[in-house]
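As noted in the main text, all predictions were made from sequence alone. Below is one such record, for DUF5753 domain-containing protein.
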Amino acid sequence: MSSVKFLNGELAKLLVEWRLKKGLKTIKDAAFFLGTSPEILSGLESGTRQYMDAPLIDGILSAYGAPQYIRDDAAAKARQIRFGDPQRWQESGPSWFNRMTQLEPRATAIDIFEDTYITGLCQTVQYARAIMETNPDLKEESIGTALEFRSHRRRIVVEKADNGARLRIIQAEHSLSVIEGTDLYAEQLERLHEDNAREGIDIFVMPTKVLHPSMEGPYMILSFDDPSTPDVVYQESVLGAQYEARIDQVDRCRGVFSATLASAVPLDEWSSKKC
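Prediction:
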């Protein structure tokens, strides 16, 4: 079992990513460039350093040329490591800009429960736009950017031919019935069937009148083979995104998902009954 905490590991990967983008192939090269010792940088990049000083992380990323929003996010995580719980993270940025775009491609298995919306990975552009337009805080420019990020997520997780991740998705029936009779319904349902036919993807529907253990809200469980990346539960709300990597909490959510899955209906079976 890896001793690297969730946020430590995420910051470590970020430092390596931006070092390589700077063209510094080795820690020794980077240490010389930064004017620090290889031992300090190695501790940061391995994620084993107990505390990651926020100004230090910000300074390194700045020297590597990382944009301000990346640096701000990293500094906030460094403060959480020192003063909070490095196995948990709450971020308040827009839902289209979050760590999911970096976590999802590395996952070997993703379990998703969605109660209100069609899960983002399976949304059509028209459906996604319609949902975003209900948000008074999103301007047209932001919507366009959000749609681009959503399409990017889909390409690297769902449509990528060599992606080995297994996806199990439970959609609450309400998420479909609420758009039934609209211009969005047929195309969105067809998209779900197309994705369900992909290898390694199984989509289920939770009937509206069935009580189940996931009624508290949507969540996603990401599992990894990489020992340096702990399995994590991800949740979104109006207050932002939360990541939970404590083993007992991840295991509890796995149990909830399994119990919910037992009451769900495969998408093809649900559709045949609707006809």
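DSSP finds twelve helices and eight strands in the chain. The two ends are 49 Å apart (CA to CA). These features were considered when defining construct boundaries for the mutagenesis experiments described in Section 2.9.
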